[in-house]
Amino acid sequence: MNQINSKLREYRFEIGILLALAIGIFLRFYQLDRQSLWGDELYSVYASSLSNWSDFWAYLAEDPHPPLFQILLSYWIRFTPNFTEYSVKLFPVFISILNLLILWVLTSSWEKPKRFLFLFLLSLSPGAIYYAQEVRSYSLLLCLSSIILVLFINLEIKANRRIRFLYLIFASILISYVHLFGFIFVGTLYFVFWLRFFWNRDIEARYIFILGILTLFAFIPFLYQLVSGSKIATASWIDPPNWVLYRTYYSLFFYTSKKFLFLTAIVPISVFIYWIGKDIRDTKSSDPKQTFSSSRMILLVAFCIVISTSLFSLFKPIVTNRNWIVTLPLVYYFVADHLKVSLHRWYVVAALILLTLFSLLDFKKNYYFVFKEDWRGSAQFVTNHCQPPVVLVDSYPEYLGLYLRWEGHNEFSPILTGSDSEILQSKLCITKRFLGGNGVGLPPSVAMEKSGQSLFYGFTVEEYKKSK
Question: How far apart are CA 17 and CA 111, in angstroms?
């Protein structure tokens, strides 16, 4: 018995990591099919489902985001045996799980407590779980930002440094072509550390400079296209920074409610501020030579990203809380580095587990039972209550067409309201979207009267029949 206890104690961090990864993977699959894809997701899916590459690029012509996620999703759709709603939802889940497994391998040389905390926090992060179930680029953005951070920290290891350096260049270029905030992430990371190394006249400044310059040169083609075209204007719907933005940003780390406010907000923020204050006090007495693994400098990178993009957004709003998902691994690394020395105390482990549990309880309450847009429910209503072939839609008929196809009803032809089309059927349905509709209803040339109306999340489906 003593021998078993001794072994458990010896491998407690490895066991904890495996448990955290297992729970994290489970939560990424949990209720994956609970609700319909919403508009932004359907934009990604429809664009990537186009078999002709010229159609693909034409559809993305006004998208302000770099195209790498869309391209990878296109290949996922092509190589997946069945193109269904569920199969495309598996793509970001696959990326998120792959991220955890890669990090598990890349952090094998870290101190055991720090490695456990970093992987525990990332595995059970509400933000990481949330965007693992959304068919947008944020799972890939988090994946690459996490890998880049770990590769960057591991530059301290002299063995095989050249290979890690090449991996960093490759990953930095990839993340720049996933999202604009991917480029902001690597640009800020390299600039902050280059400035510090250069100030201390450290030879490492040379390597950081090369990383930054190569990433910049590789990104120039898209940057030129973004600035010279009208793509960036499509982000004009974003609000300037306000308290809601920062509250929802915090929810990426911890979900909180009034019931658990003290445990999931006040306690973590107070401890976090204490650590920052302690670091500031210790700055004068610490070694001025900062290493790649300096958690103080890595947190500074996160602050620079949040503050600089907030200030820019006062003039041209570009920030949403999900864009700041790139800072998750930066903050988690800072927390893991500071909490590792206290992890031998049982009450610290208990507090960490309780905080995570209460956060996930609030996350479940606020996330798993709320729909964004019920395209699926609207399509199912159309198939069960409407007459083919024409069904009118006041925005994005191609999205409704996807769901009708997935439901196995190719006899329906969704058409945008206001389009010239001959309607011969005796009954007609019009699907109206709460946000983004064109405001056009039943064509004046169609002599029909309204016979019913059904509400869905984000939609109204109106039924019409011919007047007697």
Answer: 13
| CB-neighbour burial class of residue 184 (10 A; exposed 0-12, middle 13-18, buried 19+) | buried
Ramachandran area for residue 440 (φ above 0: left; ψ -120 to 50: alpha; else beta): beta
Angle (CA) 298 302 101, round 5°: 70
The per-residue pLDDT for range 177-213, each reduced to its tens digit, is 999 999 999 999 999 999 999 988 888 899 899 999 9
Q: One-letter amino acid identity for 431?
A: T
User: Residue type at 297?
Assistant: M
In 283-412, at which residue ranges do the beta strands (DSSP E only) sit? 390-393
End-to-end CA gap in the chain = 86
Q: Is the dihedral of CA 299, 305, 308, 310 positive or negative?
A: negative
Token code pair at residue 9: 């104690």
pLDDT at 253 exceeding the cut of 80 = yes
Q: 325-355 pLDDT, tens per residue?
A: 999 999 999 999 999 988 888 888 888 988 8
Average pLDDT over residues 412-431: 86
Q: What is the four-CA torsion angle of 350, 354, 355, 361, rounded to 10 degrees?
A: 160
Type of residue at 125? S
Query: Is 253:328 a contact under the CB 8 Å cutoff?
Result: yes
Cα–Cα nearest to 172, from 155, 193, 197, 189: 189
Quick one: how far is CA 111 from the chain centroid? 28
Q: What is the pLDDT of residues 23-73, one digit of tens each?
A: 999 999 998 998 899 988 999 999 999 988 998 988 888 788 899 999 999
> Does residue 232 surpass a pLDDT of 70?
no
Taking the C-alpha atoms of residue 106 and residue 300, their distance in angstroms, rounded to an integer, is 23
Q: Rounded CA gap, 147 and 114, in Å? A: 16
pLDDT at 95 (0 to 100):
97
Which of 171, 214, 209, 173 is closest to 192 using CA atoms?
A: 209
Other C-beta atoms closer than 10 Å to the C-beta of 447 total 9
Task: List strands edge to edge, sheet with 413-416.
Answer: 413-416, 390-393, 427-433, 459-466, 448-456
Cβ distance 312 to 241 under 8 Å?
A: no
Angular region, 165: left φ>0, alpha ψ -120 to 50, beta rest: alpha
Q: Are 137 and 69 in contact (CB under 8 A)?
A: yes
What is the distance between the alpha carbons of residues 461 and 344, in angstroms, rounded to a whole number? 59
Cα 187 to Cα 208: distance, rounded to the nearest angstrom: 10
Q: How far apart are CA 252 and CA 245, in angstroms?
A: 11
Which residue has 């720049």 as its token pair? 176
